[in-house]
Amino acid sequence: MEKVICVLGFLMAVCFAGFVLGADSDTLTVSVGVMAPEPDVVGVAVPDSLDFGNVTKGEESDIMDLYINNTGNVAITVTPELAGDHDEIFNNLFFRRTQSQAFTEVGSFSVNITEPSSGDVKTQRTYVMLDLTNYDGDLGNNTIVEHESDVIFWAVAQ
User: Fold this and answer.
1) Which CATH class is domain 44-139+147-157?
2) In the predicted model, what is the mean pLDDT of the chain?
3) Can you give the residue ranges of every domain in the chain?
4) Most buried residue among 13, 77, 99, 132 by CB atoms closer than 10 A?
5) pTM for this prediction
């Protein structure tokens, strides 16, 4: 019996060695260049100025088109806000996104602008109006008083 087990063990070793000796292999080297993702860039651009012309106290200005540009690479929310020491007349500045929407006071209005295509700019048309129907500021004895203020357009990633 020991002889039979030895012979069977020997035969199995020979068969296994045959598989090993008759086998073949090859090697594949894999590689990858891992790039850091492009950082999020928030960018907004608006015209340098907007002139409402002459507006009579107690009336509204014409509705003006204002194009706000997303110059970054992510979707943004833009909120216009009057700059620090601003002329009080511009507290009556109103914005809306579409012609069918109601106007919203500056500082309370915001608009979402989608992410532009790579290397492109996404433009959002909005509408602006100066509403002097309830303005009670003093114009003195002047027929026309020039007013000017800065509006900051804050953009944050969505």
Assistant:
1) mainly beta
2) 89
3) 44-139+147-157
4) 132
5) 0.75
